[in-house]
Structures are given as C-alpha cells and as structure tokens.
Amino acid sequence: MEKPRFVEGEIYHIYNRGVEKRKVFLDKQDYLRFIHNLFELNNEEAVINTSYYLNSQSPRTSYPTTRPKERKPRKLLVEILIFTLMPNHFHLLLKQKKENGIVKFMHKLGTGYTMYFNKKYERVGGLFQGRFKATIVKDESHFINLPFYIHANPLDLFHYRGSTSIMELKKYRWSSFPDYIGNKNFPSVTSREVFLEFFGGEEKYRKAMSEWLKERKENTEKIKEAKID
C-alpha cells in the first residue's frame, strides 16, 4: 500500500500487525509498555531517561509518571486522537503536528517497542510486518465511522465474537474508548476534543457508538477504502 503524503493538520488511520500475524502483546505489561511509549515517545526530543514508567502499583493510573518528577514539556510530533491495541495488531488515529511528525513518531514507537519486546522474550529481528500502513481521513464518512470502527475492534476477540454489547468495550482496557465515554483509563495519552466536540460530548459519543454497533457490518462497508486490515 502506497502511503499518503503526511501533511500538518490532517488526520490519518495508522495500522500495523505482528510479523506473520504473530501476537505482539503477550501480557498486561506489554500493553502497558506500548501505551507508555505512545505517551513518552510523542516528543521531538529524544527520550534520554529510560526510567520513565507507568505506575505499576496503580495499573489504572490516568497518566504516565516519571522519575525524576521534573521534566521539560513535551514537544508533540502528533496528536493521538484514538487508539486500540489488539493481541497481534494496533490501530491509531493520528493528527500530524510537525513536518514529518507521523513518520518520526512511528519510527520511535516501532523501534522502542521492538527493543523492549525482543529483550524481554529473548528474540531477535523485526517484530512488525514491515513499515506501518496509513490512509488519510479524507471525508465525513471516514470521520464519523473510523473512530467507531477502531474502538469496536475488541469485539472480534474470541470471547467477544459476534457481540454488539458496548459493555464489553467499556471493560476493554487497551483502548481509548473508556476515556471517550468518561471512564478514566489513560486520558493523558489522547487528545479527544476533536471527536467529542463533533459528537456532542461523552454521553452522546457512547450513545452513537451503541447505535453504530447495531449495524456494524453495514457501517464498516462505508469506509472499506479507508480500512487497512
């Protein structure tokens, strides 16, 4: 797939999966590490202090904590609007803030997580299936349906297969969906103003998601050219 030209202010659907469709998140700490990286590596500056961590004593912490406490403000490469992590792949909606910001951020994200994963599991080589895939969010149908499509991905897990219950999505931690409906999960990672303003706030977003799920297959067809899985 040919990548679009990345332009400041535009929104892009970003996706990648494990090489040979292998699982890239094997336990809770793997998910937490990737979410930690979403926050920490979204910075023009190099992350020198490797002691940045998510508070393991409080896994539902609303923000990544740091050692030491004093730190320079981040210079964001992108705005992370939405994310969902699945066992063998991830989806992001990113808005580019700096020239070449998405490419720089995704390089840091992929390299950083692969180094962590390979060291932890004593493996070598690439973890993801080539370079990330990307499509631009170019019309209203994409803008309306892609957030729901990404947030609905966990329903495809084995024990959720065929479910249209929003309750299952509320319980799934490795997604920005809980934050979008007012249940604090990892709120510091995402910039939710764009979509919440469009849909009318957290409660209306939840109701719109419930309605979308009732015709999930049909609604997904509306964005088939923007899907990258």
Task: Please give a handful of descriptors for the protein shown.
229 residues, Alpha-Beta Plaits, alpha+beta
Explain the layout of strands and helices:
Blueprint: E1 11-17, H1 28-40, E2 78-86, E3 89-96, H2 101-121, E4 133-136, H3 140-151, H4 166-171, H5 177-180, H6 193-199, H7 202-214, H8 216-221
Antiparallel strand pairs: 1-3, 1-4, 2-3
Describe the structure.
The chain has a four-stranded antiparallel sheet. The longest helix is centred in the middle third of the chain and has 21 residues, at 101-121. By secondary structure, it is of the alpha+beta class. It has one domain: 2-Layer Sandwich (Alpha-Beta Plaits). The protein has eight helices and four strands, in the order βαββαβαααααα. α1 runs antiparallel to α2. It has helices spanning 28-40, 101-121, 140-151, 166-171, 177-180, 193-199, 202-214, 216-221; strands at 11-17, 78-86, 89-96, 133-136. A hairpin with a 2-residue loop joins β2 and β3 (89-96).
In terms of DSSP E residues, the strand content is 5-15%
Give the end-to-end Cα distance, rounded to a whole number of Å.
Answer: 11 Å
Strand order of the largest sheet: 2-3-1-4
User: Could you spell the SSE succession in H and E letters?
Assistant: EHEEHEHHHHHH
Estimate the global geometry from the Cα principal axes: globular
CATH top level?
Alpha Beta
CATH T-level fold name: Alpha-Beta Plaits
Rounded Rg: 17 Å
At the fourth CATH level, what is the homologous superfamily? Answer: Transposase IS200-like
How many separate structural domains?
A: 1
CATH architecture: 2-Layer Sandwich
